[in-house]
Structures are given as C-alpha cells and as structure tokens.
Amino acid sequence: xxxxxxxxxxxxxDKVVEIRRLLPGIELLPRPDDLPEAxxxxxxxxxxxxxxxxxxxxxxxxxxxxxDTGLEVDALDGGPGVHTARFAGxxxxxxxxxxxxxxxxxxxxxxxxxxxxxxxxxxxxxxxxWAEGSVEGRIAEEPRGGGGFGYDPVFIPVEGxxxxxxEMSEEEKNAISHRGRAFTAxxxxxxxx
Length: 193
Prior knowledge:
By secondary structure, the protein is an alpha/beta fold. It has helices at residues 13-22, 45-60, 94-104, 170-176, 178-192, and strands at residues 5-8, 27-29, 64-73, 79-81, 112-122, 129-139, 155-157. The protein has one domain (5-192): Maf protein (Alpha-Beta Complex). Strands 1, 2, 3, 4, 5, 6 and 7 form a seven-stranded mixed sheet that branches. α4 crosses α5. The protein is globular and about 50 Å long.
C-alpha cells in the first residue's frame, strides 16, 4: 500500500502543478517553507533525487516524493545532464538557461538530445521506490511556444509532430514527456505496493 500523503521535495511551482496532475489520488503536501534547499551534488539524476527526498524525510519524518531531470545534448557530450537547472549559472532562470544552450549550440549540426527524469518516493526506514522516464528529441534553433517551462520552448520530441513541448497542450506534453513517463511509472509501482 502506497503512502496516503507525500511531501513534495520541489518548491518549483511549475513542477508542483505538473506532478499533482501526474500523481492523482495521492495527497501531496507542499515543501515546508523553512527548509533549506538540499545541495544537489550527486553524480546522477537518481543520486540528486534521493538527496532531495532524504533531506525532506529527515526534516519532516514523512514520506517524500522527489525527482531530478537532466537534458542530455549529444553535441555537448551528454551535457548539461545533472547540471541542467544551473546550466547558465547557480542563479540562472529559464530564459538564461535556454539562451545559454542556444549560444553554445550555435552552428552545431547535431542537435539531437534527450530528457531524462528520475522520480522517487522515500518512506522512513524503507528503500526508495523509483522510476525513470525519457524522451528523445532535438534542440530547436530558437524558442517557440508559450506553454510549459524550463527548456520546453526549444525541445522538439521525436514522437511529436515538429512542435516544441512549449507549443503543446499540457495533456499532449505529459503523454510523451520524460516527467510524465517517470511519474506514471512511479504511480504504477506505488499502486502495486
């Protein structure tokens, strides 16, 4: 039986909205405001998701749900990877990260990339329950679309019709996205417990 309540490790409101839609039937508690952000210094997406979840479990004593996402660009030897959220610097926002990515890829012929997400639930005294989701695609030459967040305006999924994630509806994006796949698989694993 899965935990009836999970504390969200993220305070990113865009991700909170997306995760709430991807985990129906589970009560998701907001991350306590007085908790400092966990230092994401893991070598892998799994490591970083576990660091975030463990920080919450230790602080609240409640089960926590966390995720970490990486954009892996082939022309950048798989980068930015675990540094995706801070690609343009530690305080960079969405626009700065996208602009930096387009700048370093200027003139690159190979624009293939993938998004990977690891989503996990950590319950006190139990091993983590986790799942991974990925989606192949390519990086657009310029941002397109007003939806989504992060790198969505420049990521064109192979399984789509040439639109970026930011040009899709939330339902279209969640059906094929890395985060949609990871959390759908995680929800299925939790339901089996």
